[in-house]
UniProtKB/TrEMBL annotation:
It comes from Mycolicibacterium diernhoferi. The chain crosses the membrane at residues 28-46, 58-77, 83-103, 115-137, 143-166, 178-196, 208-225, 245-265, 285-303, 315-333, 339-358, 379-398, 418-436. Residues 1-441 form the Major facilitator superfamily (MFS) profile domain. PROSITE patterns: MFS. Pfam families: MFS_1 (PF07690). It is found in: Cell membrane. This is MFS transporter. Gene3D superfamilies: MFS general substrate transporter like domains (1.20.1250.20), Multidrug resistance protein D (1.20.1720.10). InterPro entries: MFS (IPR011701), MFS_dom (IPR020846), MFS_trans_sf (IPR036259). The keyword Transit peptide does not apply. It is a multi-pass membrane protein. One of its GO terms (cellular component) is plasma membrane. Its main location: membrane. Keywords: Membrane, Transmembrane, Transmembrane helix, Transport.
Amino acid sequence: MTAAFTQTILIPIQGELPQLLNASSGDTAWVITITLLVAAICTPISGKLGDMYGKRRIALILLGVLILGSMVAALSPTVVPLIVGRGLQGMGMGVIPLGIAILRDALPADKLGSAIALVSATLGVGGALGLPMSAFVTEHFDWHVLFWFASGLGATAFLLIITLVPESKLRVGGRVDGIGIVGLAIGLTGVLLAISRGNDWGWTSPRTVVALAGGLVVLLVWGWLELKIREPLVDLRVSARRPVLLTNLASIAMGFALFSSQIAFPQLLELPTEVGGLGKPLLQASMHLMPAGLAMLAMSPVAGRLSRRWGPKPLLVSGAMIMASGYAIAVLSDLQAGHILVINLLIGIGIGLGYAAMPTLIMRAVPASETGAANGLNTLMRSLGTATAAAVIAAVLARYSVDLGGVDVPSADGFEVAFLFGLGAAVLCTAIAIFIPRSEPVVDPQH
């Protein structure tokens, strides 16, 4: 929850950051981008380190870095130290797959599905709290207070883990794959930079093309080397197993579907009515988005029971279909605030089911010694989906724009195309999930 909160607290005010920091919009865009980049790189690495040296130990280190980053951001008067703090916060996102992996080590099999559903739901709760809190604090206080609150949440989580979470005795040991870490970091940085900054740089500009092509080449070489290393950072042979591969592909599509709404709906709610928006103030707009996270939390016990009864695959299929129904309403309706509330509830329910199912599908297909690394890679796939959605939906809304007082703002046609992209991603996720083979849980001897 803390990790998700820190990732979302600046989303409602990202348009105001140039004024708040007295910097260009190009510079302040890095405040959002750096967290995404660092989180994407660190999640698979932290998962592997957790398998090697203990998940609890690595989780505590990452939370310590998150607390430090939050304090740096809270004390930053200008954009550069804020970017540094946000990068450190991004490292803390690696605690998410570790937290899910710890459940497999600490809980009996009959409790695992419900626990995964609950922990996955806290991602939505963190986001749901972050959006309205960011709006409220910005309207009434200094926005730096957001980061002091994040520091307090991180410190609370740190103390609770020390007090309550047992250290797993399951460790694979081995050596750190330094080449794998460097190769993955360079390759992902190139690809994600091109995706996240392509709208600003231009999709055919030399910077974008070089970053994307260079990142892809590095990742291809990295994959070839990983197949030859005895103790790789990411075991690509395990990742290529059909259940793991299809679940990760479905994760990309579901991440895209989720973030399409998070990019489009805030702008639609806040834009003036004369250009097709709903004219809501920042705090009201955030409150209309909050139910999605609460729906995720409410679905967690239901998801756990359904997973025990029918297995995780039907959960993922039904979650994607529910998300698709929400986007279908968005495409076919003349949207009002009430419609957006219902659509966000449907998206929250769908994400609650899907995010509960995906870690279980992954853990059923990999040995216990690779739980952290496999969940880290799955979290990376979700991040890749959200990053791609952020770029694509931003490009769509920029392409379909109208003039408002000398400023280009998204048009009604732009929002409709954005919702069509979200609908397509949800349908694609459904189709992929249908082909995930059923598998029996891998038996862990310690349980």
